[in-house]
Amino acid sequence: MKRPTHKTKPEWQIEQAADRPITRDQNGALAVPLRLVHQGEHVATPPLLLTVAEAEKLHASLCYALDSEPTPDDAPDCRKSIQCPGGRQRY
To answer: What residues in the chain have per-residue pLDDT under 50?
Structure first.
């Protein structure tokens, strides 16, 4: 099996389907639409189902991972730094 390098396109790609909104299913789970692509061809748009607790954990993990990145002007409020008592910053 040939390993992909930065010069070759991956055989499989999974990305968020940006043209479809995140919704809730009948059980309250969040459904994040993904786009599954094989060798450049769209194969399916399956949902990634997350409980509220899983979505919160993912959100916190992403905020933590983005902590050292500059905050874009159009970022949601949760990405903007908040000055806390004692001079600490909280995200």
So the answer is: 83, 87-88, 90-91
Query: How far is residue 49's CA from residue 26's CA, in Å, rounded to a whole number?
Result: 12
In one-letter notation, the amino acid at residue 43 is V
**Whole-angstrom Cα Rg for the chain:** 18
Whats the size of the chain, residue-wise? 91
CB atoms within 10 A of CB 24: 11
Give the C-alpha distances (Å, rounded to integers) separating 78 from 44, 60, 81, 91. 32, 10, 8, 6
The contacts of residue 10 (CB under 8 Å, 6+ apart) are 4
Q: What is the Cα–Cα distance from 21 to 31, expressed in whole angstroms?
A: 9
Confidence (pTM) = 0.66
The residues near 87 (Cβ < 8 Å, ≥ 6 apart) are none
Q: How many degrees, rounded to 5, is the angle at CA 48 between CA 50 and CA 81?
A: 60
